[in-house]
Amino acid sequence: MASLYDSADIYDLIENQERYDAYKEHWKSVLENKNIKSMLDVSIGTGSVTLPITELGVSLSGSDLSETMLDRCRKKASDRDMSVELKNSDFRDLKCWHGNKYDMVASTGNSLAYVSNEDVLKTLEQMDALVSDKGYLYFDLRNWDKILKERNRFLLYNPFFVDDTRVNLVQV
Ligand SMILES: C[S@@+](CC[C@H](N)C(=O)[O-])C[C@H]1O[C@@H](n2cnc3c(N)ncnc32)[C@H](O)[C@@H]1O
Question: What's 106-123 look like in SS3?
Answer without folding.
Answer: EECCCHHHHCCHHHHHHH
